[in-house]
Amino acid sequence: MRAELTQGLIDFLKASPTPFHATATLAQRLEAAGYQPLDERQPWQCEPGGRYYVTRNDSSLIAFKAGTRSPLEGGLRLVGAHTDSPCLRVKPQPEMQRHGFLQLGVEVYGGALLAPWFDRDLSLAGRVTFRRDGRVESQLIDFQAPIAVIPNLAIHLNREANQGWAINAQNELPPILAQIAGAEPYDFRALLADQLSREHELTADIILDFELSLYDTQPAAVVGLHGDFIAGARLDNLLSCYAGLQALLAADDEQSCVLVCTDHEEVGSTSCCGADGPFLEQTLERAFAAGEDLVRITQRSLLISADNAHGLHPNYPDKHDGNHGPKLNAGPVIKVNSNQRYATSSETAGFFRHLCLENEVPMQSFVTRSDMGCGSTIGPITASRLGVPTVDIGLPTFAMHSIRELAGSQDLEHLVKVLTAFYNSAELA
Asked: Where is Zn(2+) bound in this sequence (predicted)?
């Protein structure tokens, strides 16, 4: 079971270099399990016992199934995660030709750790919008091959490098794509048109626009002397998306269950498809009920906001509160913040603890040091928009927001087990 889940996660990460690809991969796996796609532009006819999913912006997805028990009686079991990760995004007019090298202008998306992006074999993926035969179309592309690199400056030319230096995103992050001769301007859009032709056999009249991200081509892997860890890109937060998907597919038919995987969490969630937008509320209104009935359902429901937690790093133990240092491979972490950066309450935390105890899943707690700031999640945002009771949890990881993060290889099984039990739970209080 553990090895199968781990390999499934590795495959999922490889297939999902961008939020667009993650959403497409989730949709493919849901359809293979009998979930029907819904179009927001068309009327919906959701039947009791039905299984459905809907996407928005090609980068956010909500999947749900109507249980045999009425949600007016039993509420909804919701699991929330996000599809985006910090990365380098290509600028609209990215061509840079400097000293015989072709480079791309990039913009930092989210709170990325920048130093690990140097000296990596990078590829490019995302969504391209183009005109073909007079119609505007969009398509996902993934170069897959390592086509770019951001070389470090040699220590001989930067003697202070190991004492730390401020990375200038404008000057130091443009990746090198090729060495070129002459000064003839390079057309990046021609490269995208060629990729569309090779990958999808499409001939675009003109490339209109694109949303493209660089990513590390090194695949995720099980690492460590005893295989204790999973190392890979975008564990924050595709790990939770994958765990939520596995739990939803394993859930029985009694309770009404929802999986929410939204984009733009790393930049505040304020978008039409982000957690601070209307996507979830509009979907629930169309799928289950509106007005007073939706309020009644919501107050019988619970959201588990699943987003990675900071594990206790052996080289930096002083970065944690002495009583709240989550360990890798020791189970999910309940995240608490009295200033509501996490939406956990004593009641929602109590229920999650009960769920873990009932299913023999180890659990831990995290509170940030009182002299340090605290990040946030989709939990408080969704709770404030929808009014749903929420608990923030996550698996402990190292190197969060790096190009390559690290999680415990045993924890994925713990998370899938408790989320499956949550989807099947008869009572939420």
From this structure: 82, 156, 401
Asked if residue 322 lies in contact with residue 407, where contact means CB atoms within 8 angstroms, the answer is: no
Q: Cα–Cα distance between 12 and 23 in angstroms, integer? A: 11
What tens digit of pLDDT does each residue of 37-83 get? 999 999 999 998 999 999 999 999 999 999 999 999 999 999 999 99
Six-digit token pair at 168?
């200038």
| Angle CA 286–20–294, to nearest 5 | 20
Strand 206-216, strand 364-366: pairing: unpaired
| DSSP bridge pairs for 333 | 364, 394
**CA–CA distance, 415 with 246 (Å, rounded to integer):** 10
List strand residue ranges (DSSP E) for 57-100, in order. Answer: 60-65, 76-82, 87-98
Q: Give dist(CA 222, CA 235) in Å, integer.
A: 13
Residue 324 assigned to a binding site? no
Annotated ligand binding at 82? The verdict is yes
Round to whole Å and give the CA distance between 278 and 336: 26
Instruction: Render pLDDT for 82-138 as a digit per residue (tens, 0 to 9).
Output: 999 999 999 999 999 999 999 999 999 999 999 999 999 999 999 999 999 999 999
**Which long-range contacts (C-beta less than 8 Å, at least 24 apart) are formed by 26-32?**
26/53, 26/61, 26/63, 26/241, 26/245, 26/261, 27/53, 27/55, 27/61, 29/245, 29/249, 30/63, 30/245, 30/249
Provide the pairing of β-strand 76-82 with 256-262: parallel
Whether residue 414 is annotated as binding a ligand: the answer is no
